[in-house]
Amino acid sequence: METSVSSGEVLDSLARFRTSDAQMHQRVRATTTLGENEMRILSYLLRQHRDGNVVKPSEISRHLAISSASTTALLDRLERQGSVERISHPTDRRSILIAPTARAAGDVADIVDAFETRVTEAIEALGDEGRASVLRFLDAVADAADDIATSER
């Protein structure tokens, strides 16, 4: 049984998501004293660490789409706060790796994990066709945002 959903309802739902997501991030930042990009770095590091991956500063720069200088400044601040540590690369003496500390895991991981668990449950409930539709939609929305952000006026 198919339910008819209007474009306006989808736009309203997208707007509600964006507002809720921004409010969640704002609450997390307020309770952890982290900035938006610091929070994004820690979320990324925790996810990569949980998956058994090591992270170089250049990967953080690419993930956040920020300069290496900005990445270094953010990592310096996170290191001073005790949220990340720089580790010598085991095979490349010129490289360093960035890892979340136990403190970061305690401050942020529970929140990030709880959100990701609920989102994963919602994704799994969609089934293959639903996930494919959502993926196409989100890719189209991201493309639209990218096109608007990069177009010259």
Question: How are the elements arranged and paired?
Answer:
Blueprint lengths: L6 H26 L3 H15 L6 H8 L3 H13 L3 E5 L7 E5 L1 H49 L3
Antiparallel strand pairs: 1-2
Helix pairs in contact: 2-5, 3-4
Q: What would you say about this model in short?
A:
This protein is mostly helical. 73% of the residues lie in helices and 7% in strands. Strands 1-2 form a two-stranded antiparallel sheet.
Fold and architecture overview:
The protein has a two-stranded antiparallel ribbon. It has five helices and two strands. The model has no long low-confidence stretch (mean pLDDT about 85). Strand 1 (about 85-90) and strand 2 form a beta hairpin. With about 150 residues, the protein is mainly alpha-helical. The protein has one domain: Winged helix-like DNA-binding domain superfamily/Winged helix DNA-binding domain (Arc Repressor Mutant, subunit A), CATH 1.10.10. About 75% of the residues lie in helices and about 5% in strands.
Key features?
mainly alpha; Arc Repressor Mutant, subunit A; two-stranded antiparallel ribbon; 5 helices; 7% strand
Corresponding CATH architecture: Orthogonal Bundle
Order of helices and strands: HHHHEEH
Strand order of the largest sheet: 1-2
What composes the largest sheet? 2 strands, antiparallel
CATH class wording: Mainly Alpha
